[in-house]
Amino acid sequence: MTLPELTAIFLLAGIEIKAIVPIENEYWPRAYVELIEKNPWYLVTTEFGVIKIGWRKRVISIEWSQTNRRGEVTHDDVTKGDDYVHAYGYGSAVTYLTNFKRLPIKEVS
């Protein structure tokens, strides 16, 4: 995912980006150096906290454990939990991040 693609996802979801920090892809094993370098993940600081996002093999992993929002963002049959979801493409990523904004605020440690 390129920086323009990343910023577009958040812009379309209506989430303001305060900072972006590229991190190493957490999906590919270290033996896949080329794939890791071509597909960084990002820590995106927003008004809600930090959201980790990046491509796995076929899905975009979105994780918001560093925020105080919890809950499922979709009824779609995808891998998901109270603080993460896998999106099959950019459109789904926008939808899920839009839904993330509506999640209840929870006390987290």
In short:
By secondary structure, the chain is an alpha+beta fold. The chain has 3 helices and 6 strands; from the N terminus they run αβαβββββα. The protein has a 6-stranded antiparallel sheet with strand order 1-2-3-4-6-5, covered by helices on one side.
What can you see in these coordinates?
- This protein has helices at 3-13, 33-38, 90-100, and strands spanning 17-23, 41-46, 49-55, 60-67, 80-81, 84-87.
- The chain has one domain (3-100).
- The protein has a six-stranded antiparallel β-sheet, covered by helices on one side.
- With 109 residues, it is α+β, with helices and mostly antiparallel strands.
- The protein contains three helices and six strands, in the order αβαβββββα.
- The chain is 26% helix and 31% strand.
Features of this protein?
alpha+beta; 3 helices; globular
